[in-house]
Structure formats: structure tokens, C-alpha cells
Amino acid sequence: MRLSSFPYTVKLYAQHIGNGSVSLPNGSTTDLVLLREPISQASYECDDGYEVTASNTTEALLIDKTFYFIGPFLKSFYFADYPLAKVRIGVKGDGTNEVHITKVLLSIVALSPSGSTSLGSTTLTFSTEYSSKATDYKIFDVQALIPTTSQELPANVAIGYRIKIWGYVDGGDQYVKLFYTRGSSDTTVIINYMQEEEAP
């Protein structure tokens, strides 16, 4: 096997594709995808994020979502270096009680007909919790490199970007949102990879 002499780079945008869905290698479907270009801002019935109501007063997992690249790689490939992941998160309180984000896990997975395999992850635990009691969304970005294995990945796997968010509230019902706004770069992952080439 001969690898490309220089890495390819692809920036993938997390988006929701409305009432449509795409098939994945394990036979399931999803409407949360990674695209080479974001969808149009005017796309109909496409969500701009995923919002949850939080009422837990101790740390708990609030959001767990995976976006899949639906344009499979043409040939087997290796990661050339660590993917650079970014996620946009919002928190909204009731004016009295705060909502706190304590940690975020970002990971890369490979989905094949036999199941899902983690290729690497990084957990960001905040020494100062991100929090707000404002009644409008307070938004922040989290960005990190994801250490990945250097194993060969066949062309028929679906690469996924998984995001998990933990937090708690002081009281009442508060809100946390993962943003992937139509036409935006709210939540992205940049992948550098080496691909097989034909021998000269």
C-alpha cells in the first residue's frame, strides 16, 4: 500500500437535514450529518440546534449527539494528525437560578456494518464552570484536538463526531442547547488524512 505524499484536509459542518434522513452502514438512519459545506440558511424544517430542559441539581449527562459524514471516503485512509473539533453551546436560566456546564467530551467514531468503534476522544473539564442565569442564551465555543488512533480505516465506514455535555442547575427548569445553525460553522471538525494511492 502506498499513501499520499501529502495530507488531504476536509472541514466538516454539523447540520440537521430536516425531515430527510440518510442510511448508515449499520442499517440505521440519521438526520444529523457532517457536510463539506453547510446547508442553506433558508433550508425548510431544519433545526438550528438541540435544546434540553435541565432540572438536575447534581452533575448529569445532558446532551449526547453524533453527526455522521455521509460522503464516504473513496479509499482506505489514515488520520494524518489529530482532528480539530469545535462545538457551540448555549445556556439559559430563569433570571434567578443558574445553569452550569461542567464538562464536554468530543470524540471521533467509526460506524461500520458491525457497529461503532471509538477512534479517540478528549474530555474538557472546566475548572471554572460555564454558567448563567440570564433569560437569553449565553453562548460559548469549545475547541480541542482529539487524539486518534493511526489504524487504517476502510472506505465504507461512516466517520462520526460525537458530542457529550454534562451540567447541573441550581433549581427549577433551565435550558442547555447544542448549536448547529443552518448555514453556519457553529459546530465543526477539521480532519487531515492520508489516502491510498496507486503505485507508480
Query: What sort of overall outline do the alpha carbons produce when their principal axes are compared?
Result: globular
In whole angstroms, the N-to-C terminal distance is: 11 Å
Average residue pLDDT: 90
SSE order, one letter for each helix or strand: EEEEEEEEEEEEEEE
Q: Report on the biggest sheet.
A: 13 strands, mixed
Based on the structure, what is the oligomeric state of the protein chains?
A: single chain
Structural class: mainly beta
The beta-strand count equals 15
Describe the protein's architecture and organization:
The chain has 200 residues and is an all-beta fold. The protein has one domain: Jelly Rolls. The chain contains no helices and 15 strands. Strands 1, 2, 5, 6, 7, 8, 9, 10, 11, 12, 13, 14 and 15 form a 13-stranded mixed sheet that branches. A hairpin with a 5-residue loop joins β3 and β4 (29-30). The protein is globular and about 65 Å long. The protein starts with a strand and ends with a strand. 31% of the residues are buried. The model has no long low-confidence stretch (mean pLDDT 90).
